[in-house]
Design brief:
The chain is α/β, with parallel strands linked by helices. The chain is built from 14 helices and 13 strands. Helix 2 packs parallel to helix 6 (178-191), helix 2 (33-50) packs across helix 7 and helix 11 (273-291) packs across helix 13.
Length: 403
Amino acid sequence: MAQHQADKSLEDTDKAGISQIKVGVVLIDRFNMMSLTTSLEPMRIANFLLLQSFYEWQYLSFENLEVTASNGMRINCQAVDESKYYDIIFVCGSWGCERETPQKIEGFLRKQARYGAMLCSFELGVYSLAKAGLLDGKQATTHWSYIAGLKEEFPDIDVCEQLFTQDKNIACCSGGIASLDFVLSLIEKHHGVHLVSEIIDQMMYHGRRPAQTPQRNTLGNANGKLHPDIKKVIELIQSNITEPPAIPDIAAHIGISQRQLERRCKDHMGCSIVQLSQILRLEHARTLLVSTSLSILDISVASGFNSVSHFSQAFRRYYQKKPSHYRKAWPEREPRPVWSGTFLSFNNQPNLYHTTTPVNPLDRKKFISPTIGSGNIKKPINVKPVNHTQAVKPAGKYLPPRG
């Protein structure tokens, strides 16, 4: 490819015709192997079908020349050459990137951007772009389990939950199989839909999805995709997480009776609307605990709880740990992090309450302390608003619950 121009995007040069794309794949320790594999395989197959090495990539590292993925596999890398420029930069990072990234990566990314390289983050590699100031005012995404933390840490970024985003020469991908959808979209811009169709046939992947596709469809529902009404309930609660709406307001918003809404939630999710709301808020709080330095008080307010004591009590019942213990339980260099349960994942755990009989904790009255009055979710008491982005960072480093 010709020498980059600082104000020229990759898409503009595509239209003029190019002979090769050079990709620098920056690997950060504990990166997700699936994100890497699904991003490179479409390019490898494209080369095979084009009978030329149109896409050429190099593994790069700012730290060790042998980088270990979260599944233990190791990749030999080259040391980053600051004087070398690429057409595309992939930043592959997973848990740990929200706390720290290689010191030189931010300057490297800014320099590559000035010379017209396309910058693409995968999963938590988005933190490298964010810390470099390259996402301010732009739309971005990451794995759904870290979206809440990314929003709190970088309020100037338009964070959304979808497979991938692209704003000219800056792209963010949520990772996993979404990396395949994202790279297929890049190849289509270079070579058109016909080559992409052949790649899809080669990979036997016929479920290609557009960028705006939601990352989650089931939230633990064993029956498949969520019922449309339940999806609306979840979206409404999540968009008002700090002040959860009352049940009559939710029913009115959806356009069905309160009794019908309760029955539908019980049938499809195995819990009441009150319990569903609290689970969603606890999941939100858990994300903030492991991905931000916000205080327990700030997190309880940001998650829509009346008080720290109420928040701690509900959190302990759901996760079997106090919020402070949950946060401190993640040592700095945990080789294999443990996800201690996600939405409705406790349904068939017989030992959750130290019993020998399988129980559904959502059906137990003591599982959740409902903040309700006459069947309605009680809104939080008047609490002085907290600016979460200005919370004082405590000493110590914590790791998130993803592998």
